[in-house]
Amino acid sequence: MVNQLRIFFAHRWAMIAVGMLAFVIFSGCAWRSKIPVDPMTVGAGDRCFIEKEQVVHADQLYSQMGSLDLVARYLREQDQWRSCEVNEAIYRLRKIHDLP
């Protein structure tokens, strides 16, 4: 009888330990994992590849408008470029024209 109780409680403690271990493993990963980011809505530090023709178009707009902010706004609103494309164009215009 005593031996059966020991086995019963040992089995129960083992199951509780396994359950707690599983909880720690699976819940520990959940709070550390990053939520995936939609590539179309990435922030201002993001850049992606643009064609040379797009850079030329942005450069022509810069020579007409004289402001990088106006060029960026025009490209977003009128030409409907993605944010990463606009950021890359502005980055290249800064390098071409030695702007800060």
Summarize the structure in short.
With 100 residues, the chain is mostly helical.
Detailed description of the structure:
With 100 residues, the chain is mainly α. It has 2 domains: 36 residues; 51 residues. Helices cover 69% and strands 0% of the residues. The longest helix is centred in the first third of the chain and has 31 residues. The protein is rod-shaped and about 95 Å long. It starts with a helix and ends with a helix.
Supply database-style keywords.
single chain, 100 residues, mainly alpha, 2 domains, rod-shaped
Q: How widely separated are the two ends? A: 84 Å
Q: In DSSP terms, counting alpha (H) and pi (I) runs of 4 or more, how many helices?
A: 4
Structural class: mainly alpha
Query: Secondary-structure element sequence?
Result: HHHH
Uncertain residue segments: none
How would the blueprint of this fold be written?
Elements: H1 2-32, H2 52-65, H3 68-77, H4 83-96
